[in-house]
Write a structure and sequence with these properties.
By secondary structure, the protein is mainly beta. About 15% of the residues lie in helices and about 40% in strands. It contains four helices and 17 strands. Strands 4-3-15-8-9-12 form a six-stranded mixed beta sheet. Strands 6-17-16-13-14 form a five-stranded mixed beta sheet, with no helix packed on it. Strands 1-2 form a two-stranded antiparallel ribbon. β13 and β14 form a beta hairpin. The longest helix is centred in the N-terminal third of the chain and has 13 residues.
């Protein structure tokens, strides 16, 4: 654990929760279908994105990238969001939120780790106790919508059954018997988009729990800064 931290402020079902984060991990290629992962790798290779060294792979990012603001700024017009479940390790156990691994897609062709460091990572202001959903993780549903030119459309949607369970990801990241220390935030992967990767003026995301009949939501606006050289 390092000494650089950011503190997030969450609402839970019954109290407010301050969560210091010192280690940000972004899990990539976390799908449970190996054939689908390989097909997606080939698609990205055709766009110039290099094949990952392994799957899943765990990218490290600065904890200070995390934000709960309702807007972010990016340089240029090649960055886009993607909805992901996010696990937070705290003194009171694991909590589940939702976030967007906003990434510069042009820089991604140069280096994925670098591209993930280019953009803020918006996360929700509410979380659920992970133990309340761990038994029906596969039934949770993630969605995102993008608005561009005033037109809103569904961007991503699907059950978390298509992705590896967080306990499996934590074991693959830290080894057998790994227990994350308080301060870890892990983005757990995402689903394919409907259509192509696109920047948005407004990005909305949702995690639905159909078993306990509740939802986590968050949205943020994107301001593009000019590239002057």
């Amino acid at each position: 654990m390092n000494n650089v931290r950011t503190t997030l402020h969450f609402e839970t079902a019954d109290h407010l929760l301050d969560v210091p984060v010192t280690d940000l991990v972004i899990a990539g290629w976390t799908g449970s279908d190996a054939a689908a992962i390989e097909a997606h790798i080939l698609e990205l290779e055709a766009l110039g994105v290099r094949r990952p060294k392994k799957t899943p792979i765990f990218y490290r990012g600065a904890a200070t990238l995390l934000t709960q603001r309702e807007s972010i700024e990016v340089v240029g017009s090649t960055a886009s969001g993607e909805v992901e479940p996010v696990i937070f390790s705290t003194e009171s156990g694991l909590w589940l939120g939702i976030g967007s691994d906003h990434t510069d897609r042009e820089v991604e062709t140069v280096g994925i780790t670098i591209s993930k460091q280019m953009c803020a990572k918006p996360v929700s202001t509410k979380v659920w106790k992970f133990e309340e959903v761990e038994g029906h993780w596969n039934e949770l549903i993630v969605r995102s919508w993008m608005t561009k030119g005033g037109q809103r459309r569904l961007y991503q949607e699907g059950p978390l059954a298509k992705m590896r369970h967080p306990f499996e990801l934590l074991k693959l990241y830290g080894g057998e018997g790994y227990v994350p220390e308080p301060g870890l935030a892990m983005f757990c992967g995402t689903l394919a988009v409907h259509g192509s990767l696109e920047p948005a003026e407004l990005f909305e995301m949702e995690l639905e729990d159909p078993v306990l009949q509740r939802r986590l939501t968050h949205s943020y606006r994107v301001t593009e800064l000019p590239i002057e050289g």
